[in-house]
Amino acid sequence: MQFTINRSAFIKALNYVNRAISSRASMPILTHIKMVVEETGITLTGSDTDISIETTIEKTDDSANLQIQEIGAIALPATFFTNIVKRLPGEEMTLTQTTGFQAKINSGSAEFDINGQDANNYPHLPEITIKNQLILPADTLVEVIRQTIDSVSKQLSQPILTGVHFVLASGNLTAVATDRHRLAQRTLNFGESDVEADIVVPGDSLKQLVGMLEEVETVEIRVAENQIIFQLGANTLFYSRLLEGNYPDASRLIPTEKRTTLTINARELAQTIDRAALLSHEGRSNVIQFSISANSSMISSNSPEVGKVEEEIFAAETAGDEITISFNPDYMKDALRTFGDTEIQIGFKTPLDPFTLVPTNNAMNFIYLITPVRTY
């Protein structure tokens, strides 16, 4: 095996597949990148069994300036190999498979010899039967993921909640995530379609996917029995396993009654909560209070061992009953970050019931729910 390639193009492909490489891999060879060189191009594969990423650099890609002298295959240690390629001095590099499963890398005045493994020992990507497929704008899918991913549970004792629940039906996609303390739900209409699916995608998979979506315009989503595949452009496939189990019915958790509402700019409120959190984080209980009345609204935190903070907030509008409610400021900051610099309405029922945040212009059909903290 031997080829010469533009180093920048090769690094981009390596960065893609490295997203699927784990230092805690169950098999030693999964700490490697599989590289297959054919007459038409080079295919790189990375996997940790939960996520697999395959990307191809085609010989016809002018930016890669790929020249193939000899075909072949090898698996090279992912981190070591990538670090070498990133530090090579020249604009181009040549990789040659030498004796057995060794590779020689040349660029400029630098030369490296590294040991690899037999590519035939690398697990094959799953062969799956596609049930449904859907094409979405990449930036839309990024928005949906970022609005829900913070609410995914980190408790492995409830594995089904460590993913985002996607339901595709009647031309709508609904994404829901909850850790039982908060919930985020986004509904998206993608037009007339007979695509139907009810799946839970691991949050860790979606975090890796987001970084890759920013470089493509559209993404093709394919759903199989226990896998989901995202095709990014013409040359990259992202595989993820699906979580097994029944996701809780989110619609039962969302309150329908609001006795108090407050309308305010999300970014301004986030800045106020960020200041109050400086004190709550120093205290034993990470809690902030929200007091709302017709005359004024206050954010406060009181930690006897640290001190006290109070700040008036200037809402665009308040309506309904007076209320004082306690909550985790970190959950609130995560929620407000998903809204950006937009006006939102916060709806309260009682001090012990979950409260909701929605954009005042809720064309995107997005709702965030937070469970208050009981302080007595």
UniProtKB/TrEMBL annotation:
Confers DNA tethering and processivity to DNA polymerases and other proteins. Acts as a clamp, forming a ring around DNA (a reaction catalyzed by the clamp-loading complex) which diffuses in an ATP-independent manner freely and bidirectionally along dsDNA. Initially characterized for its ability to contact the catalytic subunit of DNA polymerase III (Pol III), a complex, multichain enzyme responsible for most of the replicative synthesis in bacteria; Pol III exhibits 3'-5' exonuclease proofreading activity. Belongs to the beta sliding clamp family. It comes from Weissella soli. The lineage of its organism: Bacteria, Bacillati, Bacillota, Bacilli, Lactobacillales. SMART domains: POL3Bc (SM00480). GO terms for biological process: DNA strand elongation involved in DNA replication. SUPFAM superfamilies: DNA clamp (SSF55979). It is found in: Cytoplasm. This is Beta sliding clamp. InterPro entries: DNA_clamp_sf, DNA_polIII_beta, DNA_polIII_beta_C, DNA_polIII_beta_cen, DNA_polIII_beta_N. GO terms for molecular function: 3'-5' exonuclease activity; DNA binding; DNA-directed DNA polymerase activity. Keywords: Cytoplasm, DNA replication, DNA-binding, DNA-directed DNA polymerase, Nucleotidyltransferase, Transferase. Forms a ring-shaped head-to-tail homodimer around DNA. It comes from the Bacteria. GO terms for cellular component: cytoplasm; DNA polymerase III complex. Gene3D superfamilies: 3.70.10.10, DNA Polymerase III, subunit A, domain 2.
